[in-house]
Amino acid sequence: MSDISEIIRVIPNLIRTGNVEQINADKVRVRLSPTLLTTWLQWVALRAGDVVEWSPLSIGEQVVVLSPNGDLTQGKVLGGLFSTDSPAPETALKLRAIHYPDGAIVRYDFEVHALAAILPGGSSALVKADEVTADAKQTTCTGDVTIKGNLTVEGMSALNNGMQVKGGAGGVAAIINGEVQATGDVVAGDISLQNHRTSGVKHGDEVSEGPTP
């Protein structure tokens, strides 16, 4: 009879669901019932070998406790289960997404081949590498761009709202190798290339004085 009682006690404890109540790094305590709180148990990570993934469980998250031999002190915690308090954030079956508590979302829709990383206001993103390549037919930046190193453009450049160039360490603002064509006037200081007058002009081989405004 005692063996049967032990079996009846053990079987329900093999697999149980509950909610995370306390977190301490890679261990959690799970509330299995109003009167039963587990000891500190390890939670199951997706990878913990050469590749390590760190995504801790959160307070209130619904989880499964798997206990070898029905011994809750040896249980491992597997998260997470959608619940009324934490429902599924998406419904599309061909979509993979991660939603963060600050509102950030990383989403890939493999039906339409669209990847999006949406960050909240005041956020930042960093890509640090010896070389970064963006291989795209079209790239659009909607805000300001600051380049602290040299800029090399191998294709045609079109500046649609003008440009401002300041001289560098050598004092030269621009060096142009080749012809320059301008459909409008070119002004150096107060001197207009189209409208300036040249004083001191004489016939013959004498050189005129400099242009005057």
TrEMBL record:
Residues 17-82 form the Gp5/Type VI secretion system Vgr protein OB-fold domain. It holds the Pfam family Phage_base_V. It comes from the Bacteria. Residues 194-213 are annotated as: Disordered. This is Phage baseplate assembly protein V. It comes from Herbaspirillum chlorophenolicum.
